[in-house]
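Sample entry copied in:
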Amino acid sequence: MQDKDYIDQEVAGVRFIYETLYPQEPIELHLWWEKSKMATPLIQRQENPLNADMLSQGYLGAHRIGPAPQPGQLGRRICLTIPSPRQIRGRAHQNLPWADRPLHYRLVNSLSPLLGEQGKYLVERRRQRLRPKRHKFARLPLSRTANYLTDPAVAHTTSRKKTPAILIGLHWLDVGGAESLGLNSIQWALDLGLRVFVMVGQHGPERLRAKLPQHPDLHLIRTDRYLPPALVGHFVERLIAQENIILTHNHHCVPLYDALPAIKLRHPHVVNLDSTHIVEHHDGGYPRISGVWSNFLDYHHVISNELLAFYGESFRVYGSKMVLGRLLDDRQRDKTPLPVRLSAGQNTCRITFVGRMVHQKRPLLMLAILRRLHKWGKANNVSFHFDIVGEGAYLEALRHKVARWRLNDCIHLHGAGSDVPALLAKSDIMLLPSSNEGLALVCYEAIAAGCIPISTDVGGQNEICPAETLVPWAPFKTVRETCNLVIRLLRDKGFAQQVERTQNARLQALQNEPSAREVLSRIYAQTLQKTQIPSAKAPTVQQEEKTSCVG
Protein backbone atom coordinates (compact mmCIF):
# COMPACT_ATOMS: atom_id res chain seq x y z
CA MET A 1 0.00 0.00 0.00
CA GLN A 2 1.49 3.34 -1.06
CA ASP A 3 0.39 5.09 2.16
CA LYS A 4 2.08 2.52 4.42
CA ASP A 5 4.49 5.03 6.02
CA TYR A 6 1.62 7.41 6.75
CA ILE A 7 -0.49 4.62 8.26
CA ASP A 8 2.42 3.44 10.41
CA GLN A 9 2.87 7.00 11.69
CA GLU A 10 -0.82 7.28 12.55
CA VAL A 11 -0.82 3.89 14.29
CA ALA A 12 2.15 5.02 16.39
CA GLY A 13 0.15 8.09 17.45
CA VAL A 14 -2.86 5.93 18.32
CA ARG A 15 -0.67 3.62 20.40
CA PHE A 16 0.66 6.58 22.36
CA ILE A 17 -2.87 7.79 23.15
CA TYR A 18 -4.25 4.48 24.34
CA GLU A 19 -1.13 3.22 26.10
CA THR A 20 -1.24 6.49 28.05
CA LEU A 21 -4.96 6.17 28.75
CA TYR A 22 -5.03 2.44 29.58
CA PRO A 23 -1.45 1.50 30.55
CA GLN A 24 -2.41 -1.73 32.36
CA GLU A 25 -5.04 -3.08 29.95
CA PRO A 26 -4.78 -5.27 26.84
CA ILE A 27 -6.06 -3.36 23.81
CA GLU A 28 -7.15 -4.63 20.41
CA LEU A 29 -7.16 -1.89 17.75
CA HIS A 30 -9.42 -2.26 14.71
CA LEU A 31 -8.58 0.20 11.97
CA TRP A 32 -10.28 1.40 8.79
CA TRP A 33 -8.93 3.45 5.90
CA GLU A 34 -10.88 6.63 5.01
CA LYS A 35 -14.36 5.31 5.86
CA SER A 36 -16.09 2.71 8.00
CA LYS A 37 -19.70 1.60 8.41
CA MET A 38 -19.33 1.99 12.17
CA ALA A 39 -19.31 5.29 14.04
CA THR A 40 -15.72 5.82 15.13
CA PRO A 41 -13.89 6.31 17.43
CA LEU A 42 -15.63 3.52 19.35
CA ILE A 43 -14.45 1.85 22.56
CA GLN A 44 -16.03 -1.38 23.85
CA ARG A 45 -15.11 -4.45 25.87
CA GLN A 46 -13.43 -7.22 23.90
CA GLU A 47 -16.01 -9.75 25.02
CA ASN A 48 -18.60 -7.92 22.89
CA PRO A 49 -19.42 -9.96 19.73
CA LEU A 50 -17.91 -8.92 16.40
CA ASN A 51 -20.25 -7.98 13.55
CA ALA A 52 -20.07 -8.11 9.78
CA ASP A 53 -19.64 -4.34 9.40
CA MET A 54 -16.16 -4.66 10.84
CA LEU A 55 -14.91 -6.40 7.69
CA SER A 56 -16.40 -3.85 5.29
CA GLN A 57 -14.39 -2.16 2.56
CA GLY A 58 -11.44 -0.21 3.94
CA TYR A 59 -10.83 -2.47 6.93
CA LEU A 60 -7.09 -2.63 7.68
CA GLY A 61 -7.14 -5.33 10.31
CA ALA A 62 -6.55 -5.71 14.04
CA HIS A 63 -3.51 -4.67 16.02
CA ARG A 64 -2.76 -5.62 19.64
CA ILE A 65 -1.03 -3.27 22.07
CA GLY A 66 -0.44 -3.28 25.81
CA PRO A 67 -0.03 -6.36 28.03
CA ALA A 68 -1.24 -9.77 26.90
CA PRO A 69 -4.87 -10.67 27.71
CA GLN A 70 -5.34 -12.69 30.89
CA PRO A 71 -8.21 -14.95 31.95
CA GLY A 72 -10.94 -12.67 33.21
CA GLN A 73 -9.27 -9.57 31.69
CA LEU A 74 -9.68 -9.56 27.94
CA GLY A 75 -9.26 -5.77 27.77
CA ARG A 76 -10.75 -3.26 25.36
CA ARG A 77 -11.60 -3.19 21.67
CA ILE A 78 -11.02 0.19 20.02
CA CYS A 79 -12.36 0.97 16.53
CA LEU A 80 -10.82 3.88 14.62
CA THR A 81 -10.83 5.34 11.11
CA ILE A 82 -7.64 6.78 9.64
CA PRO A 83 -8.29 9.70 7.24
CA SER A 84 -6.18 9.67 4.09
CA PRO A 85 -4.00 12.62 3.02
CA ARG A 86 -6.35 12.99 0.02
CA GLN A 87 -9.35 13.41 2.32
CA ILE A 88 -7.53 15.98 4.46
CA ARG A 89 -6.47 18.01 1.42
CA GLY A 90 -10.07 17.95 0.17
CA ARG A 91 -11.32 19.70 3.32
CA ALA A 92 -9.64 22.92 2.16
CA HIS A 93 -11.63 22.96 -1.10
CA GLN A 94 -15.15 22.06 0.00
CA ASN A 95 -16.69 25.13 -1.63
CA LEU A 96 -20.33 24.80 -2.63
CA PRO A 97 -20.74 25.62 -6.35
CA TRP A 98 -22.97 28.62 -7.05
CA ALA A 99 -25.60 26.50 -8.86
CA ASP A 100 -25.94 24.20 -5.83
CA ARG A 101 -26.64 26.98 -3.34
CA PRO A 102 -30.24 27.48 -2.08
CA LEU A 103 -32.56 29.24 -4.52
CA HIS A 104 -33.45 32.06 -2.10
CA TYR A 105 -29.73 32.73 -1.55
CA ARG A 106 -29.08 33.01 -5.28
CA LEU A 107 -32.14 35.21 -5.83
CA VAL A 108 -31.21 37.68 -3.10
CA ASN A 109 -27.60 37.88 -4.24
CA SER A 110 -28.67 38.22 -7.88
CA LEU A 111 -30.59 41.35 -6.92
CA SER A 112 -27.74 42.66 -4.77
CA PRO A 113 -25.17 41.11 -2.41
CA LEU A 114 -25.85 44.10 -0.17
CA LEU A 115 -29.37 42.84 0.50
CA GLY A 116 -28.00 39.51 1.71
CA GLU A 117 -25.37 41.24 3.85
CA GLN A 118 -27.99 43.60 5.29
CA GLY A 119 -30.10 40.63 6.37
CA LYS A 120 -27.11 39.00 8.06
CA TYR A 121 -26.22 42.28 9.73
CA LEU A 122 -29.71 42.67 11.21
CA VAL A 123 -29.60 39.08 12.51
CA GLU A 124 -26.17 39.65 14.07
CA ARG A 125 -27.30 42.88 15.74
CA ARG A 126 -30.28 41.08 17.24
CA ARG A 127 -28.11 38.18 18.48
CA GLN A 128 -25.64 40.65 19.96
CA ARG A 129 -28.45 42.40 21.80
CA LEU A 130 -29.83 39.10 23.17
CA ARG A 131 -26.41 37.62 23.94
CA PRO A 132 -26.48 38.23 27.73
CA LYS A 133 -29.87 36.49 28.01
CA ARG A 134 -29.06 33.48 25.85
CA HIS A 135 -25.56 32.62 27.04
CA LYS A 136 -23.83 32.18 30.37
CA PHE A 137 -21.76 35.17 31.50
CA ALA A 138 -20.71 34.01 34.96
CA ARG A 139 -17.56 32.27 36.14
CA LEU A 140 -17.86 28.62 37.10
CA PRO A 141 -17.33 28.37 40.88
CA LEU A 142 -14.14 26.81 42.22
CA SER A 143 -13.74 26.21 45.96
CA ARG A 144 -10.66 27.77 47.53
CA THR A 145 -10.37 24.60 49.60
CA ALA A 146 -10.82 22.24 46.65
CA ASN A 147 -7.77 20.17 47.65
CA TYR A 148 -7.94 20.66 51.42
CA LEU A 149 -9.02 17.09 52.24
CA THR A 150 -7.86 15.43 49.03
CA ASP A 151 -5.91 12.26 49.70
CA PRO A 152 -2.48 12.57 48.04
CA ALA A 153 -3.14 9.18 46.49
CA VAL A 154 -6.03 10.70 44.51
CA ALA A 155 -3.71 13.11 42.72
CA HIS A 156 -1.45 11.42 40.18
CA THR A 157 2.24 11.52 40.98
CA THR A 158 3.99 13.43 38.22
CA SER A 159 7.10 11.86 36.72
CA ARG A 160 10.01 14.17 37.53
CA LYS A 161 12.46 12.04 35.57
CA LYS A 162 11.49 13.69 32.29
CA THR A 163 12.30 17.20 31.07
CA PRO A 164 9.39 19.56 31.90
CA ALA A 165 6.81 19.92 29.16
CA ILE A 166 3.92 22.15 28.08
CA LEU A 167 0.57 21.09 26.62
CA ILE A 168 -0.66 23.48 23.92
CA GLY A 169 -4.23 23.22 22.61
CA LEU A 170 -5.15 24.51 19.12
CA HIS A 171 -8.62 24.93 17.64
CA TRP A 172 -7.47 23.24 14.42
CA LEU A 173 -4.54 23.25 12.02
CA ASP A 174 -5.91 25.71 9.46
CA VAL A 175 -5.01 29.33 8.81
CA GLY A 176 -6.14 31.79 11.50
CA GLY A 177 -4.91 34.34 14.03
CA ALA A 178 -5.22 32.01 17.02
CA GLU A 179 -3.46 29.21 15.14
CA SER A 180 -0.65 31.56 14.06
CA LEU A 181 -0.06 32.56 17.69
CA GLY A 182 -0.25 28.89 18.65
CA LEU A 183 2.55 28.01 16.22
CA ASN A 184 4.65 30.85 17.61
CA SER A 185 3.98 29.67 21.16
CA ILE A 186 5.23 26.21 20.24
CA GLN A 187 8.51 27.68 19.00
CA TRP A 188 8.92 29.95 22.06
CA ALA A 189 8.40 26.98 24.38
CA LEU A 190 10.95 24.89 22.46
CA ASP A 191 13.43 27.78 22.63
CA LEU A 192 13.14 27.73 26.44
CA GLY A 193 13.91 24.01 26.56
CA LEU A 194 10.40 22.75 27.21
CA ARG A 195 9.13 19.63 25.52
CA VAL A 196 5.88 20.44 23.69
CA PHE A 197 2.72 18.35 23.32
CA VAL A 198 0.07 19.71 20.96
CA MET A 199 -3.58 18.65 20.88
CA VAL A 200 -6.19 19.81 18.36
CA GLY A 201 -9.83 20.58 19.14
CA GLN A 202 -11.57 19.63 15.89
CA HIS A 203 -11.21 18.39 12.31
CA GLY A 204 -10.67 20.77 9.43
CA PRO A 205 -8.24 21.72 6.69
CA GLU A 206 -4.64 21.22 7.79
CA ARG A 207 -2.74 23.86 5.85
CA LEU A 208 -0.62 24.64 8.94
CA ARG A 209 0.39 21.01 9.55
CA ALA A 210 3.54 21.39 7.46
CA LYS A 211 4.47 24.59 9.33
CA LEU A 212 4.84 22.87 12.71
CA PRO A 213 8.50 22.98 13.80
CA GLN A 214 10.48 19.88 12.89
CA HIS A 215 11.84 19.23 16.37
CA PRO A 216 12.35 15.98 18.31
CA ASP A 217 10.73 17.52 21.42
CA LEU A 218 7.47 18.38 19.60
CA HIS A 219 4.67 15.79 19.73
CA LEU A 220 1.34 16.21 17.93
CA ILE A 221 -1.41 14.16 19.61
CA ARG A 222 -4.46 13.56 17.38
CA THR A 223 -7.13 13.35 20.06
CA ASP A 224 -9.47 15.03 17.56
CA ARG A 225 -9.26 11.98 15.30
CA TYR A 226 -8.80 9.03 17.60
CA LEU A 227 -10.27 9.74 21.04
CA PRO A 228 -13.95 10.14 22.04
CA PRO A 229 -14.53 13.64 23.48
CA ALA A 230 -15.73 12.23 26.81
CA LEU A 231 -12.29 10.68 27.44
CA VAL A 232 -10.14 13.72 26.64
CA GLY A 233 -10.06 14.97 30.25
CA HIS A 234 -9.05 11.53 31.55
CA PHE A 235 -6.34 11.31 28.88
CA VAL A 236 -4.99 14.80 29.68
CA GLU A 237 -4.65 14.08 33.39
CA ARG A 238 -2.71 10.89 32.67
CA LEU A 239 -0.57 12.64 30.04
CA ILE A 240 0.39 15.33 32.57
CA ALA A 241 1.49 12.70 35.08
CA GLN A 242 3.37 10.63 32.51
CA GLU A 243 5.19 13.46 30.70
CA ASN A 244 5.89 15.96 33.53
CA ILE A 245 3.71 18.67 32.01
CA ILE A 246 4.01 21.82 34.11
CA LEU A 247 1.70 24.19 32.23
CA THR A 248 -1.06 24.24 29.62
CA HIS A 249 -1.71 26.96 27.06
CA ASN A 250 -5.08 27.02 25.32
CA HIS A 251 -5.58 28.64 21.90
CA HIS A 252 -9.34 28.19 21.33
CA CYS A 253 -9.35 24.44 22.11
CA VAL A 254 -12.67 23.49 23.73
CA PRO A 255 -11.64 19.94 24.80
CA LEU A 256 -8.72 21.43 26.76
CA TYR A 257 -11.10 23.82 28.55
CA ASP A 258 -13.31 20.83 29.40
CA ALA A 259 -10.28 19.04 30.89
CA LEU A 260 -9.59 21.84 33.41
CA PRO A 261 -11.55 20.25 36.32
CA ALA A 262 -9.48 17.05 35.99
CA ILE A 263 -6.26 19.09 35.83
CA LYS A 264 -7.18 21.15 38.90
CA LEU A 265 -8.09 18.07 40.96
CA ARG A 266 -5.30 15.74 39.91
CA HIS A 267 -2.51 18.24 39.20
CA PRO A 268 -3.10 21.48 41.13
CA HIS A 269 0.55 22.51 40.57
CA VAL A 270 0.04 22.90 36.79
CA VAL A 271 -0.19 26.51 35.54
CA ASN A 272 -3.06 27.03 33.10
CA LEU A 273 -3.34 29.97 30.70
CA ASP A 274 -5.18 30.81 27.51
CA SER A 275 -5.04 33.34 24.68
CA THR A 276 -8.13 34.92 23.12
CA HIS A 277 -8.60 37.20 20.13
CA ILE A 278 -12.16 38.15 19.18
CA VAL A 279 -15.53 38.61 20.90
CA GLU A 280 -18.16 37.02 18.64
CA HIS A 281 -21.41 38.93 18.18
CA HIS A 282 -23.81 36.03 18.71
CA ASP A 283 -22.38 34.29 21.81
CA GLY A 284 -19.18 36.03 22.88
CA GLY A 285 -17.00 33.38 21.26
CA TYR A 286 -13.89 32.04 22.94
CA PRO A 287 -13.45 35.03 25.28
CA ARG A 288 -16.83 34.14 26.81
CA ILE A 289 -15.84 30.47 27.15
CA SER A 290 -12.55 31.62 28.68
CA GLY A 291 -14.36 33.91 31.12
CA VAL A 292 -16.67 31.09 32.22
CA TRP A 293 -13.58 28.97 33.01
CA SER A 294 -11.68 31.90 34.55
CA ASN A 295 -11.52 30.46 38.08
CA PHE A 296 -9.73 27.39 36.68
CA LEU A 297 -7.14 29.47 34.82
CA ASP A 298 -4.09 31.29 36.18
CA TYR A 299 -3.67 33.81 33.34
CA HIS A 300 -5.69 35.26 30.46
CA HIS A 301 -3.49 36.53 27.63
CA VAL A 302 -5.33 39.03 25.41
CA ILE A 303 -4.26 40.98 22.32
CA SER A 304 -6.33 44.17 22.65
CA ASN A 305 -7.74 46.67 25.12
CA GLU A 306 -11.20 45.70 23.90
CA LEU A 307 -10.68 42.23 25.37
CA LEU A 308 -9.40 43.66 28.64
CA ALA A 309 -12.63 45.63 28.93
CA PHE A 310 -14.72 42.58 27.99
CA TYR A 311 -13.26 40.42 30.77
CA GLY A 312 -13.62 43.24 33.29
CA GLU A 313 -17.19 44.19 32.40
CA SER A 314 -18.57 40.68 31.73
CA PHE A 315 -16.70 38.57 34.30
CA ARG A 316 -15.08 41.05 36.69
CA VAL A 317 -11.62 39.66 35.98
CA TYR A 318 -8.88 42.24 36.54
CA GLY A 319 -5.35 42.63 37.84
CA SER A 320 -2.30 40.47 37.23
CA LYS A 321 -4.42 37.62 35.92
CA MET A 322 -5.02 39.70 32.76
CA VAL A 323 -1.92 39.88 30.57
CA LEU A 324 -1.82 42.12 27.49
CA GLY A 325 0.62 41.02 24.79
CA ARG A 326 0.44 42.49 21.30
CA LEU A 327 0.71 40.34 18.17
CA LEU A 328 3.76 42.24 17.00
CA ASP A 329 7.28 41.13 16.21
CA ASP A 330 9.15 42.97 18.97
CA ARG A 331 12.39 42.48 17.04
CA GLN A 332 11.05 44.97 14.46
CA ARG A 333 10.45 47.79 16.96
CA ASP A 334 13.17 50.00 15.55
CA LYS A 335 12.12 49.44 11.96
CA THR A 336 10.46 52.51 10.39
CA PRO A 337 7.32 51.89 8.29
CA LEU A 338 7.71 52.46 4.57
CA PRO A 339 6.32 55.79 3.29
CA VAL A 340 2.73 55.71 2.08
CA ARG A 341 2.76 55.43 -1.72
CA LEU A 342 -0.67 56.93 -2.31
CA SER A 343 -0.87 60.62 -3.15
CA ALA A 344 -3.63 62.91 -4.37
CA GLY A 345 -3.92 63.26 -8.12
CA GLN A 346 -2.52 59.87 -9.18
CA ASN A 347 -4.47 58.11 -11.92
CA THR A 348 -3.72 54.52 -10.81
CA CYS A 349 -4.60 52.80 -7.55
CA ARG A 350 -3.84 49.29 -6.34
CA ILE A 351 -6.18 47.86 -3.67
CA THR A 352 -5.71 44.57 -1.79
CA PHE A 353 -8.03 42.38 0.26
CA VAL A 354 -6.53 39.67 2.50
CA GLY A 355 -8.73 37.24 4.41
CA ARG A 356 -10.53 33.92 4.47
CA MET A 357 -13.59 33.68 2.25
CA VAL A 358 -16.03 33.39 5.15
CA HIS A 359 -18.94 35.51 6.33
CA GLN A 360 -16.92 37.33 9.00
CA LYS A 361 -14.69 38.88 6.30
CA ARG A 362 -17.69 39.73 4.06
CA PRO A 363 -15.99 39.04 0.69
CA LEU A 364 -19.14 39.74 -1.35
CA LEU A 365 -19.50 43.11 0.36
CA MET A 366 -15.88 43.81 -0.48
CA LEU A 367 -16.62 42.91 -4.09
CA ALA A 368 -19.52 45.41 -4.15
CA ILE A 369 -17.03 48.09 -3.01
CA LEU A 370 -14.60 47.16 -5.78
CA ARG A 371 -17.36 47.22 -8.38
CA ARG A 372 -18.44 50.70 -7.35
CA LEU A 373 -14.84 51.98 -7.33
CA HIS A 374 -14.21 50.44 -10.75
CA LYS A 375 -17.27 52.21 -12.13
CA TRP A 376 -16.15 55.53 -10.59
CA GLY A 377 -12.63 55.04 -11.95
CA LYS A 378 -13.85 54.56 -15.53
CA ALA A 379 -15.80 57.83 -15.28
CA ASN A 380 -12.88 59.75 -13.72
CA ASN A 381 -9.90 58.34 -15.62
CA VAL A 382 -8.52 56.38 -12.66
CA SER A 383 -7.30 52.83 -13.31
CA PHE A 384 -7.85 50.40 -10.43
CA HIS A 385 -6.07 47.08 -9.89
CA PHE A 386 -7.54 44.73 -7.26
CA ASP A 387 -5.75 41.80 -5.57
CA ILE A 388 -7.87 39.39 -3.54
CA VAL A 389 -6.09 36.83 -1.33
CA GLY A 390 -7.88 34.00 0.39
CA GLU A 391 -9.86 30.75 0.20
CA GLY A 392 -13.02 29.49 1.84
CA ALA A 393 -16.74 28.84 1.55
CA TYR A 394 -17.50 32.07 -0.35
CA LEU A 395 -14.82 31.64 -3.01
CA GLU A 396 -17.12 30.12 -5.65
CA ALA A 397 -19.77 32.79 -5.02
CA LEU A 398 -17.07 35.44 -5.38
CA ARG A 399 -15.85 33.96 -8.68
CA HIS A 400 -19.43 33.86 -9.95
CA LYS A 401 -19.92 37.55 -9.16
CA VAL A 402 -16.57 38.57 -10.65
CA ALA A 403 -17.54 36.91 -13.94
CA ARG A 404 -21.12 38.22 -13.90
CA TRP A 405 -20.02 41.80 -13.23
CA ARG A 406 -17.24 41.53 -15.85
CA LEU A 407 -14.45 42.45 -13.48
CA ASN A 408 -12.01 39.73 -14.56
CA ASP A 409 -9.73 42.26 -16.26
CA CYS A 410 -9.05 44.24 -13.07
CA ILE A 411 -9.41 41.63 -10.28
CA HIS A 412 -6.75 39.00 -9.62
CA LEU A 413 -7.46 36.13 -7.19
CA HIS A 414 -4.61 34.66 -5.14
CA GLY A 415 -4.51 31.49 -3.03
CA ALA A 416 -4.18 31.38 0.75
CA GLY A 417 -0.45 30.63 0.52
CA SER A 418 0.41 33.75 -1.50
CA ASP A 419 3.17 36.18 -0.56
CA VAL A 420 1.05 38.73 1.30
CA PRO A 421 3.93 41.05 2.34
CA ALA A 422 5.01 41.31 -1.30
CA LEU A 423 1.46 42.21 -2.40
CA LEU A 424 1.07 44.79 0.37
CA ALA A 425 4.43 46.32 -0.61
CA LYS A 426 2.93 47.09 -4.04
CA SER A 427 -0.51 48.20 -2.80
CA ASP A 428 -1.84 51.66 -2.01
CA ILE A 429 -4.88 50.64 0.05
CA MET A 430 -5.97 47.50 1.91
CA LEU A 431 -9.68 46.86 2.57
CA LEU A 432 -10.97 45.10 5.68
CA PRO A 433 -14.80 45.39 5.59
CA SER A 434 -15.29 42.62 8.19
CA SER A 435 -18.40 42.16 10.29
CA ASN A 436 -16.09 41.49 13.23
CA GLU A 437 -12.38 41.45 14.06
CA GLY A 438 -10.15 41.09 17.09
CA LEU A 439 -7.19 43.25 16.16
CA ALA A 440 -6.20 42.25 12.64
CA LEU A 441 -2.53 41.36 12.27
CA VAL A 442 -2.71 42.19 8.56
CA CYS A 443 -3.28 45.86 9.48
CA TYR A 444 0.12 45.93 11.22
CA GLU A 445 1.68 44.44 8.10
CA ALA A 446 -0.09 46.88 5.79
CA ILE A 447 1.05 49.98 7.70
CA ALA A 448 4.63 48.69 7.89
CA ALA A 449 4.53 48.15 4.10
CA GLY A 450 3.40 51.73 3.35
CA CYS A 451 -0.21 50.78 2.69
CA ILE A 452 -3.33 52.46 4.12
CA PRO A 453 -5.80 50.00 5.72
CA ILE A 454 -9.49 50.95 5.60
CA SER A 455 -11.44 48.92 8.15
CA THR A 456 -14.88 48.63 9.69
CA ASP A 457 -15.03 50.02 13.22
CA VAL A 458 -15.40 46.65 14.98
CA GLY A 459 -13.49 44.83 17.72
CA GLY A 460 -10.16 46.42 18.53
CA GLN A 461 -9.58 47.93 15.09
CA ASN A 462 -9.70 51.48 16.51
CA GLU A 463 -6.45 50.69 18.34
CA ILE A 464 -4.49 50.46 15.09
CA CYS A 465 -6.54 52.35 12.46
CA PRO A 466 -7.06 56.13 12.71
CA ALA A 467 -10.61 57.39 13.07
CA GLU A 468 -10.37 58.80 9.53
CA THR A 469 -9.99 55.29 8.04
CA LEU A 470 -12.70 53.53 10.07
CA VAL A 471 -16.10 52.96 8.46
CA PRO A 472 -19.45 51.81 9.96
CA TRP A 473 -20.34 48.11 10.34
CA ALA A 474 -23.78 48.44 8.62
CA PRO A 475 -23.35 47.08 5.05
CA PHE A 476 -24.78 49.99 3.01
CA LYS A 477 -22.78 52.48 5.09
CA THR A 478 -19.66 50.30 4.81
CA VAL A 479 -19.80 50.43 1.01
CA ARG A 480 -20.67 54.12 0.78
CA GLU A 481 -18.12 55.34 3.33
CA THR A 482 -15.31 53.11 2.03
CA CYS A 483 -15.77 54.38 -1.51
CA ASN A 484 -15.94 57.98 -0.31
CA LEU A 485 -12.76 57.48 1.68
CA VAL A 486 -10.85 56.01 -1.27
CA ILE A 487 -12.00 58.88 -3.49
CA ARG A 488 -10.95 61.43 -0.87
CA LEU A 489 -7.50 59.84 -0.61
CA LEU A 490 -7.13 60.15 -4.39
CA ARG A 491 -8.40 63.76 -4.55
CA ASP A 492 -7.72 65.56 -1.26
CA LYS A 493 -4.17 66.90 -1.14
CA GLY A 494 -2.46 66.18 2.14
CA PHE A 495 -5.11 63.76 3.40
CA ALA A 496 -3.03 60.63 2.71
CA GLN A 497 -0.09 62.18 4.56
CA GLN A 498 -2.34 63.06 7.50
CA VAL A 499 -3.53 59.45 7.67
CA GLU A 500 0.08 58.25 7.39
CA ARG A 501 1.20 60.28 10.40
CA THR A 502 -1.71 59.06 12.53
CA GLN A 503 -1.46 55.38 11.64
CA ASN A 504 2.33 55.36 12.09
CA ALA A 505 1.90 56.94 15.53
CA ARG A 506 -0.63 54.26 16.50
CA LEU A 507 1.63 51.51 15.25
CA GLN A 508 4.53 52.93 17.24
CA ALA A 509 2.39 53.13 20.39
CA LEU A 510 1.47 49.45 20.02
CA GLN A 511 5.09 48.51 19.38
CA ASN A 512 6.08 50.18 22.66
CA GLU A 513 3.75 47.84 24.58
CA PRO A 514 4.73 44.26 25.56
CA SER A 515 4.57 41.72 22.76
CA ALA A 516 2.95 38.31 22.99
CA ARG A 517 6.38 36.69 22.80
CA GLU A 518 7.63 38.68 25.79
CA VAL A 519 4.69 38.07 28.12
CA LEU A 520 4.19 34.41 27.22
CA SER A 521 7.89 33.56 27.34
CA ARG A 522 8.04 35.19 30.77
CA ILE A 523 5.19 33.02 32.09
CA TYR A 524 6.80 29.92 30.58
CA ALA A 525 10.19 30.78 32.11
CA GLN A 526 8.78 31.58 35.56
CA THR A 527 6.90 28.27 35.62
CA LEU A 528 9.99 26.42 34.47
CA GLN A 529 12.07 27.93 37.27
CA LYS A 530 9.71 26.50 39.88
CA THR A 531 10.22 22.92 38.70
CA GLN A 532 12.71 20.56 40.29
CA ILE A 533 14.58 20.03 37.04
CA PRO A 534 15.28 23.48 35.55
CA SER A 535 16.18 23.54 31.87
CA ALA A 536 19.64 24.72 30.89
CA LYS A 537 18.07 26.85 28.16
CA ALA A 538 15.61 28.59 30.44
CA PRO A 539 16.52 32.23 31.22
CA THR A 540 16.07 33.58 34.70
CA VAL A 541 13.32 36.09 35.36
CA GLN A 542 15.97 38.82 35.67
CA GLN A 543 17.23 37.95 32.19
CA GLU A 544 13.78 38.24 30.68
CA GLU A 545 12.99 41.28 28.61
CA LYS A 546 10.90 43.98 30.23
CA THR A 547 7.19 43.11 30.22
CA SER A 548 4.15 44.36 32.04
CA CYS A 549 0.83 42.97 33.19
CA VAL A 550 -2.26 45.09 32.85
CA GLY A 551 -4.13 45.53 36.11
In short: The chain has three domains: 24-82, 162-326+516-528, 348-512.
